[in-house]
Amino acid sequence: MLAQATVSQPPGIQPALLEEPYLLEIVNISKGFPGVVALADVQLRVRPGSVLALMGENGAGKSTLMKIIAGIYQPDAGEIRLRGKPVVFETPLAAQKAGIAMIHQELNLMPHMSIAENIWIGREQLNSLHMVNHREMHRCTAELLARLRINLDPEEQVGNLSIAERQMVEIAKAVSYDSDILIMDEPTSAITDKEVAHLFSIIADLKSQGKGIVYITHKMNEVFAIADEVAVFRDGHYIGLQRADSMNSDSLISMMVGRELSQLFPVRENPIGELLMTVRDLRLDGVFKGVSFDLHAGEILGIAGLMGSGRTNVAETIFGITPSSGGQITLDGKPVRITDPHMAIEKGFALLTEDRKLSGLFPCLSVLENMEMAVLPHYSGNGFIQQKALRALCEDMCKKLRV
Ligand SMILES: Nc1ncnc2c1ncn2[C@@H]1O[C@H](COP(=O)(O)OP(=O)(O)OP(=O)(O)O)[C@@H](O)[C@H]1O
Ligand SMILES: [Mg+2]
């Protein structure tokens, strides 16, 4: 059933599940942002000792609901119930105190502070003189990391860690609250298969301790590996909640997109055109070597490899962020040497960076200003910017990309 819920009992839910006492219930919650209805009358229920996967396409409202549960946003309407009792979380601290911990979709650690300082921030252990007891903090952190089998030094600065290691620290931090409800918003977006297996064993432990886990992911295999139940949102609407063992990836995807799978990836003829770029024996000393490939018009070329194998470095070298130590790139048959991103953009390259929040966007500027940045030189001359044309172009792009 794909109909939207108008009553409090979700469609498609197995009757047996409704008899269980719920740890957390979301009842008819709505939330709007200027120009967007992020959540319209949504439901959700989490049982103790279970994993509820929350699925939905980008912008479905998953993170918004999680931030409401964690006291970051206030809902416009609706109710949160904890063990059957209505609660209002005016601050993240209030939600934390009530036993809710959250791993955010975006990494939120302080790079200039140690792992231990990051984990205990705001609840540092103090000594009898009311000073931070660093030794005790390090001891607790070492114990926590050992319990979770995370092999990191509590005193290491977070800024020195890889993205994957930072994500493991975020996981440890969330577990350290010893909360009854753990929300994990895409916790595996930056970690390798080995670490995913590790996280799943941590989740299995938490489950056996009776914790309720809300797990947000876009990865089908993860859902079927750990979820007991699956809830689906689409465009801010609650679509349904079912037992994971009653679904398969086809039925789940069609619930998410609201269409049959055959319509999702229609066959499109796309002839491969002429040779655009060749890369021969490209190398960056100490990082990668011997990278060669051809790229044709109309072609999508995938670069695969494990975390840390150098995929991003290859892209950054081609884009001139880290100029190559050797090898050759030709564009339309002519050799080129790209030594900075400015040059790469002039040659017709665009790069979507790996960590977009850190190196792809200016978060303090508007959407339009961010978009304009990339084409500014084409819309300026005589010391003036052609504001109107530039704005029209970017507004059009916003529409096309549904930003
Ligand atoms: N702080 C905000 N201000 C304005 N609009 C917002 C804000 N946060 C989210 N939105 C909008 O609300 C809608 C739901 O966003 P949300 O981040 O909850 O989606 P999501 O399901 O978590 O998507 P994703 O899978 O991409 O993480 C989107 O249209 C988004 O643009
Ligand atoms: Mg999200």
Describe it.
The chain folds into three domains: 15-264, Rossmann fold (3-Layer(aba) Sandwich), CATH 3.40.50; 272-357, P-loop containing nucleotide triphosphate hydrolases (Rossmann fold, 3-Layer(aba) Sandwich); 361-403, no CATH class. By secondary structure, it is α/β, with parallel strands linked by helices. The two termini are 29 Å apart. Residues 1-18 have low confidence and may be disordered. It is 32% helix and 24% strand. Helix 14 packs across helix 15. Strand 7, helix 7 (193-208) and strand 8 form a beta-alpha-beta unit. The strands form four sheets. A six-stranded mixed β-sheet has the order 6-7-8-3-9-10, sandwiched between helices. A four-stranded antiparallel β-sheet has the order 2-1-4-5, covered by helices on one side. A four-stranded antiparallel β-sheet has the order 12-11-13-14, covered by helices on one side. Bound molecules: adenosine-5'-triphosphate and magnesium ion. Adenosine-5'-triphosphate (ATP) binds at residues 33, 36, 38, 56, 58-64, 105. Magnesium ion binds at residues 62-63, 105, 185.
- Tell me the structural class: alpha/beta
Strand residue content: 15-25%
What is the total number of structural domains? 3
CATH-derived architecture of the largest domain: 3-Layer(aba) Sandwich
The end-to-end span amounts to 29 Å
Our Rg estimate from Cα atoms comes to: 24 Å
Average pLDDT works out at: 88
Helix content: 25-40%
- Which strand order does the major sheet show? 6-7-8-3-9-10
Regions with pLDDT < 50 over 5+ consecutive residues?
1-18
CATH superfamily of the largest domain: P-loop containing nucleotide triphosphate hydrolases
Number of helical elements:
15
